[in-house]
Amino acid sequence: MAAKLNINNLEQQQTALEIESKEFDYSKRAQWLRAAVLGANDGLVSTASLMMGVGAVKQDIKAMILTGFAGLVAGACSMAIGEFVSVYSQLDIEVAQMKREKQRTNLGSDQRVERETAAGRKDEEKLPNPLQAAAASALAFSIGAIVPLLAASFITNYKVRLAVVVAAVTLALAVFGWLGAILGKASPIRSASRVLVGGWLAMAITFGLTKLIGSSGLSS
């Protein structure tokens, strides 16, 4: 009877550990996805704002597309380099901490050594990957930046092009805001509204200031 109880307890503990592991994995995955959504939102807003700023003083479609493309490349590179440096610093800190823990460990029996070796391998597998983080950041930024570029690429009429860019960016902002809210377990309406207002303000301020400077004669 006692043996059966012990077996049941072990099975319950194992099930609980599996559930905790799945929840932890989901939490980590959600953090990565939320970071990707934020990166895409940055690419969307910054590239669209640049294109709207150029569109305020130049009606040429080539100027707007080249500006958006330059913003995409520059932003993706900046995001990748920044993320690489940040994650590499985190990696150095975690590796140094692991070395200190190994030095402080007083190894006993062979069985204990084997357990610590296996645990050490698992810890090494969980270490952050700077290259992977850099690539993910650059990709996320590029996905967001491509939205206004595609929206403006095939429309020659100046006013229609600006309207289509704003409409496409508005739709993408709403989607990114909703995804961010779902992953962050927040209110989708409030989150999407904040993202929308922020994106509209960024484009409006850039458009207005560039228009003001352009009308003063500096654009020539």
TrEMBL record:
Domain of life where this protein originates: Eukaryota
Gene Ontology CC annotations of this record: vacuolar membrane
GO biological process, one term: intracellular manganese ion homeostasis
GO molecular function: iron ion sequestering activity; iron ion transmembrane transporter activity; manganese ion transmembrane transporter activity
Membrane topology recorded in Swiss-Prot or TrEMBL: Multi-pass membrane protein
Catalytic activity: Fe(2+)(in) = Fe(2+)(out)
Subcellular location: Vacuole membrane
Region spans: Disordered: 102-124
Basic and acidic residues bias: start-end ranges: 111-124
Keyword terms: Ion transport, Iron, Iron transport, Membrane, Transmembrane, Transmembrane helix, Transport, Vacuole
Pfam family name, one: VIT1
Ranges annotated as spanning the membrane: 63-88, 131-156, 162-183, 195-214
Function text: Vacuolar Fe(2+) uptake transporter.
PANTHER family (alphabetical): FE(2+)/MN(2+) TRANSPORTER PCL1
UniProt similarity note: Belongs to the CCC1 family.
Protein name listed in UniProt: Vacuolar iron transporter
